[in-house]
């Protein structure tokens, strides 16, 4: 019975369309492996000459197991689905949008910055102050208990007099 082998080597070439890489074994620099499978979590974070650990099998198949530096570039190929609670210690960046069916929270004094338009179906509730330029609402806006659509002004007089504050 032939055994599987786990080896160290250096990336010789990468075929991203086939999701494979050829490796130069550390102990045999004149030889190369057959194309080895690159797992999804290592796609886009391997480079030529990078040291890796890989496994080969008697049927001429194999897989890259890890980068020898223990790192990866934190890219997820295609779709990432998270079930349950996920904790991030730094930041989340998405080039093509984030969809949340539950909610997004920035607890502990964190900030949420959006560069672009926001379409909201539902209500906004703010416990702090709000500042907006060019903001529109098809519904009523209430601030300090005073409705923007339904408030009235007392002390209305003709001429240049000022009205009383809204009620």
Number of strands: 7
pLDDT < 50 runs, ≥5 residues: none
Sheet with the most strands, sense and barrel status: 5 strands, antiparallel
User: What fraction, in percent, of the residue positions are helical?
Assistant: under 10%
Shape: rod-shaped
Order of helices and strands: EEEEEEE
Sequence of strands across the biggest β-sheet? 3-2-1-4-5
Distance between the termini: 88 Å
Strand content: 15-25%
Q: Round the mean pLDDT to the nearest integer and report it.
A: 81
Number of helices: 0
SS-derived structural category: mainly beta
How large, in whole angstroms, is the Cα Rg?
Answer: 29 Å
Outline the structure in words:
- 8% of the residues are buried.
- The termini are far apart.
- The mean pLDDT is 81.
- The chain has 167 residues and is mostly beta strands.
- The strands form 2 sheets. It has a 5-stranded antiparallel β-sheet, with no helix packed on it. Strands 6-7 form a two-stranded antiparallel ribbon.
- The protein has strands at residues 5-15, 20-25, 36-37, 51-56, 62-67, 142-143, 146-147.
